[in-house]
Amino acid sequence: MKSRLLKPMPTWQKNMYLLWVGVFIAGVGLSMVTPFLALYIGTLGTFTKSQLSFYSSLAFSGSYFVMAIVSPLWGRLADTKGRKKMIIRAGLGMSIVFFLMGLVNNVWQLIALRVLQGALGGFTSNSNALVASETPAEQSGYSMGIMMTGMTSGTLLGPLFGGLLADTIGYRVTFMLTGSLLMLATLLVIFGVHEVFKPTGHVEPLSRSAAFAKLAHPKMMWGFFLTTMLVMVVNQSINPILALFVQELNHNGQNTAFWAGIVAAVPGIATLLFAPTLGRLGDRYGTARMVSLGFLFASLVFLPMSLVQTISQLIILRFLIGISDATMLPAIQSLITKEAPHGVVSRMFAYNQSFQSLGSVFGPLLGALTAHYLDYRGVFVMSALLMVLNGLWFWYNTRTMRESDGGQSI
User: Fold this and answer.
1) Pairwise CA distance, residues 306 & 371, whole Å
2) DSSP conformational letter for 9
3) d(CA 110, CA 107)
4) I need a labelling partner for 124 at 20 to 30 A (CA). Which of 9, 47, 71, 147 fits?
5) Are 131 and 12 in contact (CB under 8 A)?
6) Alpha-helical regions (H) of 82-122
7) Closest CA to 249 of 303, 162, 313
């Protein structure tokens, strides 16, 4: 027993724990600004309701649009040059950008910095790829589950801290604090993480077609990417108008940013609480079946969300949405890990990140457009419809793949 306790921890396990802390800190930092970004934009000029929704959607979607373009490039470099370098690059760049966001004088400066944030992103996806590439195959499910709790925990706590800090120390200082947290996460990686990586030398990186040719089920992978994108469209459609809708329900009262932070955080809390149980149910009854039920459940929850009259009603329904989320993205992430060979795992995570980013581009824009014509409540009706369509697509795609491989992958 004593010798077991004194046994040195394997490098992959040390990296996993350290990167869990780094991803947790990054998750807190990146999500801290979500509850009050639209409110911050409102302080940068005099805007109408439609203009405020439009500028907020640009600020949210601008970073994700660029991230969708550059993520495959960063993933390709990570597979050939090393994942740790990409993590450090992302962390240092974003820490500086967030600090500068606290100094802007107009909305276009903020939007430009959000775009730059997207170009420099990749902290979490490369952290996941580093852990996935170095963990023994028999421990891959365990390690990815650990990493997922780090990002989820950070993301759910970030809005709570951000909303509280925004109401106490102000928007600008909170942006600067976010930059400091990202710098802390980066320093942890620089001095604590030791990557076991063999450079490829002058070997040309695999082309996109060659990378996907290494997959046993490339069509399944593309299907997962599309499902991820549509889930993110729905999740992100509410973000530009979330604080504004909470402000409306709060009748322009006090502590709007704090309440917006709670509303933004509760889906993550629900996901963290229910993901393990739903994952076990998926193993027992079939992942595809559980995910499809999640889509159905989400569509049924979004409809009454359009009728809420109080913040407490919105919080309860957002918690239920978090339960449905627990059946979707975690399962897709695990399936990508199992389907991707070692040499292309970073590339697959990068492509998934690109599709997530595309969803985060289209979601805010679609949400702002819907809010313009149907007001804020129409966004929830639109979300319910998209969940139904995504559920039908996912069921069709996974059914086809199960027929081709006997259901072994799902």
Assistant:
1) 12
2) P
3) 5
4) 9
5) yes
6) 83-101, 107-119
7) 313
DSSP state of 238: T
Helices (H) and strands (E) in the chain, counts: 17, 0
CA distance 99 to 174: 9
Q: Give dist(CA 188, CA 263) in Å, integer.
A: 31
Q: For every one of its 410 residues, what pLDDT tens digit does the chain have, with 9 covering 90 and above?
A: 444 544 677 888 888 889 999 898 888 888 888 778 888 998 998 888 788 878 888 887 788 788 878 877 887 787 778 889 999 999 999 999 999 999 999 999 999 999 999 888 888 878 888 887 787 766 766 676 678 778 777 877 888 888 888 888 889 999 999 999 999 999 999 998 888 776 555 455 567 777 787 777 778 788 888 888 998 898 888 877 787 888 888 887 777 878 888 888 888 788 777 877 777 777 677 767 777 888 899 999 999 998 999 999 999 999 999 888 887 776 777 667 777 776 677 678 778 877 887 887 788 888 888 888 888 889 999 999 999 998 888 887 776 655 655 544 45
User: Which positions ≥6 away from 403 have C-beta within 8 Å?
Assistant: none
SS3 state of residue 133: helix
Statement: the pTM of the whole predicted model exceeds 0.70: no
| Nearest Cα residue to 233 out of 187, 334, 143, 302 | 302
Q: How far apart are the C-alpha atoms of 271 and 27, rounded to whole Å?
A: 15
> Tokens at residue 343, please?
């040499």
Q: Which residue has the tokens 């629900």?
A: 270
Token pair, residue 83, equals 């994942």
Angle between helices 218-237 and 345-405 (to 10 degrees): 110
The count of other CB atoms within 10 Å of the CB of residue 377 is 15
d(CA 192, CA 408): 38
Cα separation, 395 vs 294, in Å, equals 11
Asked whether 245 and 373 are in contact (CB, 8 A), the reply is no
Among 126, 145, 156, residue whose Cα is nearest residue 330: 145
Burial class (CB in 10 A: 0-12, 13-18, 19+), 329: buried
